[in-house]
Amino acid sequence: MADETPMKAVQVKLVLLGEAAVGKSSLVLRFVQNDFNENTSPTIGAAFLTQRCRLENRIVKFEIWDTAGQERFHSLAPMYYRNAAAAVVVYDITKSASLEKAKAWVKELQRQANPNIIIALVGNKLDLVSDTPSEPPTDGSEVERDEEDEETTPKPAESTEDGDSRQVSIAEAETYAKECGLLFFEASAKVGTNVNEVFTEIAKAIPLDTISPKPAAAAQGARKPATQAEGGVNLGEQQAKKGGCC
User: Fold this and answer.
1) Where is this region: Disordered (predicted)?
2) Distance of CA 101 to the CA centre of its chain
């Protein structure tokens, strides 16, 4: 009887928010399937996907709600961020207006979502302003591909110079993130830069006592309801709450 106890998976509800066309769905696709689609259709309502992230002391299973960015779907957002343990608020580093929209989402989350929610501010489309070589990760964490994809995870890039199309400087976004207590990343869903790091750092930041681990799959597999298939789409949920401010 050695310590061969199976590690328990901790389920974490995570929501993606941000203006339309900033690349939310592309970030999720890169994280879940290690893929990129140039012709992604706009999300209608929300899409639901799952992915596991293995840390040294736990496995986090993200239940990801990828919400639509169009204004007409804004009123549905509280259904998806209610009781979420984490949120990824995405903006496009080549569109300054998208950062303003991201700030509005952060304010709404801090007022109405779970008061302990971990928020990551992510500036997407880094590939448009810098050349970033891809290298494997070195932080000891692993994303477990549910469909056994090969793990080719790019390393964070040091983007220091503004390219032609950059409209949001690193300093501006990073200063705002620090003031509001957010995690901050610049990423590229297209190239893969920093995408896994976003979710890994969120997984590390979530306090264990705020989420309850599920028993190992062997003990529970047979009793799982078949309402939300992995990688599927589902538009169900409920309503909003209260919170702090930035």
Assistant:
1) 129-167, 216-246
2) 17
